[in-house]
Amino acid sequence: MKDNRGMSLVEIIIVVAIMSTFIGVMGYGISMISGKPAEECAQKLLSAIQHTRTITTGKQDTTITIFMDSEERIVTKEVSVRLLDNDGNTTTEERENVVGAKGVAVICTMSDGSTVNITGTNTVELKFDRGSGALRSTRVNGIDNSTVCTLITISKGDKIRYITITPVTGKLELTTTP
């Protein structure tokens, strides 16, 4: 008779692998609930707006539109129009990026205090000045607006991030307070 009261190395490895998988799944779920998608969306949105502003000051007429796609994700669409020659011939380039996961809320606050909630039907288009990089105009749902977007609020769960836009200079800043 043998004394079989212990566990084999294979049994221990299998138990550790199962526990690791379980902890990984729980960690991912907790990060989704805790608002990590809001932080990620804020970073990507800030980067996309900064990219548009930089391209605009680099001799291209560029706009960025923020909208929600059919899968309820936040998306940016950058449209650049470049003058090819002195005869007025131009080329247009478009680039779309998913910046926010499903369930992330984005709200644009205008300089007059009104807000635009980015939903399936609401869009906001930002256009910067080619000479100074200042925020020149904001179009809401394709219609020119007399005010400009000064604050973008990104939230999911209890996590809230703010992108402040200084219209006169076009300066962008990501903060945790408005």
Concise account of the structure shown:
This protein has 178 residues and is an alpha+beta fold. The protein has helices at 9-34, 36-57, and strands spanning 61-68, 74-83, 90-100, 105-110, 115-117, 124-128, 135-140, 143-144, 149-156, 159-166, 171-175. The mean pLDDT is 87.
Any descriptors?
alpha+beta, six-stranded antiparallel beta sheet, 2 helices
Strand order of the largest sheet: 3-2-1-6-7-8
Largest sheet: 6 strands, antiparallel
Structural class by helix and strand composition: alpha+beta
Instruction: Output the number of helix runs.
Output: 2
Query: What shape does the CA trace take?
Result: elongated
Distance between the termini: 74 Å
Residue-averaged pLDDT: 87
Strand content: 35-45%
**Uncertain stretches:** none
- Give me the count of strands: 11
Radius of gyration: 23 Å
What are the secondary-structure elements, in order, as H or E?
HHEEEEEEEEEEE
